Amino acid sequence: xxxxxxxxxxxxxxxxxxxxxxxxxxxxxxxxxxxxxxxxxxxxxxxxxxxxxxxxxxxxxxxxxxxxxxxxxxxxx
Length: 77
Fold this sequence. Notes:
This protein has helices spanning about 5-15, 20-35, 55-70; strands at about 35-40, 45-50. Strand 1 and strand 2 (about 45-50) form a beta hairpin. The protein is elongated, with a radius of gyration of 16 Å. By secondary structure, the protein is an alpha+beta fold.
């Protein structure tokens, strides 16, 4: 089981820190690659799963947008 993204990294990513955002993307990258795989046929006619760069870029873009829009609640608010 993978560890969670540390809270401090999330707070920095929400504040648009590029290094923190890279850590968040790196954490979710295996899942993004899994989701971006699409079945295609190889030269012999067999189905193989290959990553689709366009889908991968869209997923990363959506992740960045979601992190920036994320609201962190504190005890006082």
